[in-house]
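User: I'm putting together notes for a lab meeting next week and I want to include a structural view of one of the chains we've been expressing. I don't have a solved structure, so I'd like a prediction I can at least talk through. The sequence is below, exactly as it appears in our construct file.
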Amino acid sequence: MIDIEVVYAAVDRQVLRAVSVAEGVTVRAAAQASGIAAEFPELNLAECPLGIFGKVVADADSRAVQAGDRIEIYRPLLADPKEVRRLRAAKATEAKARNT
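Assistant: Thanks for the context. Below is the predicted structure for the 100-residue chain, given as structure tokens.
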């Protein structure tokens, strides 16, 4: 057995769980074994992106966890970050034009 952590941050609260899993278990299986999905009914662990220490795991169904890993469960993005930056830049340019 190896010790890992599984974390999930909802809009209103965060959960960090220490979990012991068998060696060779996949990232997705470890996230499911944590029991976090039971606390968040809106969470679909079969489809949501997962990461380890801030880096997205491309194939969470085949990558095995290692001792000490912190698996992060990511929420879907509400807005595209590139679009948000573009809108913010356009708004700043517009404000600058009004002030000159």
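A couple of points you could mention at the meeting. The longest strand covers residues 2-9. The chain has a mean pLDDT of 86.

User: Perfect, that's what I needed.
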